[in-house]
Give the backbone structure.
Amino acid sequence: MSVHRIVLDTNIIYSALRSRRSASYRLLSLLDSAKFEINLPVLLVIEYEDILLRNTHTKF
């Protein structure tokens, strides 16, 4: 069985955290399977942190 290498855009993470009914949440729920290998460049992790911290102070 082949492993799919993926990079998750910031919008996927943000959307998944906002709603458990979103397609983004479903995608994240599949990541613990052995089907995916997540590739995370350092700059993307910094972007995740920036976006998620910025939006913790606003109401949805």
Observations:
- The first helix runs from residue 10 to 18.
- Helices lie at 10-18, 23-29, 42-55.
- The chain has three helices and two strands.
